[in-house]
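> call design_seq(struct)
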């Protein structure tokens, strides 16, 4: 099945598709400039990037933030219906919804755990271990803002402005510090500065929609 078909089968709003495609092109940028001796399964990394937020529709605040839908705002009733259907099937927890969708699609445990290890709450663990696919995916997600690419600092600020309670969690400062450490670790494996990831230098590439999984 192609990624494009999966995005149709479990309808993913275009902005969320763009987010996952952006994370994927950051992983491609990292692959192109990888000088580490580790041989990584880049195809698996792409797949994880393209599927990591599949269930997010269950927590999209379409009532207060219809602008999230971009051009699809005119079809808001359709997306509200999709959200309702997904909540009914998978519940309101976006992580559980993503996991249920990936299990329904018979993805292997390795890919599913790769996706679940890449969250902000895991950043200390990500920094401390040697799991490069997770480090790369976590970092790529951390450079992706709602409407394009940004610095890690911009992404952290954006996340807090969207979810102010995030900054109140006990180990928030440590989690942020660990994220910057992960950035250094990834940087050390590349032949190009990570500051080269900008909206001018890289763009969404729809070729990834054709990947067969
Ligand atoms: Fe994401």
């Amino acid at each position: 099945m192609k990624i494009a078909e999966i995005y149709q089968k479990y309808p993913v709003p275009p902005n969320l598709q763009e987010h996952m495609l952006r994370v994927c092109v950051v992983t491609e940028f990292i692959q192109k400039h990888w000088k580490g001796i580790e041989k990584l399964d880049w195809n698996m990394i792409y797949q994880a990037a393209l599927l990591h937020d599949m269930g997010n529709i269950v927590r999209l605040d379409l009532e207060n933030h219809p602008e999230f839908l971009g051009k699809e705002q005119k079809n808001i009733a359709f997306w509200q219906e999709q959200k309702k259907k997904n909540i009914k099937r998978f519940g309101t927890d976006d992580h559980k919804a993503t996991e249920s969708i990936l299990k329904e699609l018979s993805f292997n445990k390795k890919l599913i755990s790769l996706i679940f290890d890449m969250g902000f709450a895991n950043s200390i663990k990500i920094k401390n271990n040697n799991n490069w696919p997770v480090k790369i995916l976590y970092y790529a997600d951390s450079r992706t803002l709602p409407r394009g690419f940004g610095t890690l600092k911009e992404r952290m600020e954006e996340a807090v402005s969207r979810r102010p309670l995030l900054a109140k969690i006990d180990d928030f400062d440590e989690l942020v510090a660990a994220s910057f450490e992960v950035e250094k670790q990834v940087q050390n494996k590349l032949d190009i500065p990570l500051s080269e990831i900008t909206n001018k230098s890289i763009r969404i590439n729809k070729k990834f929609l054709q990947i067969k999984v």
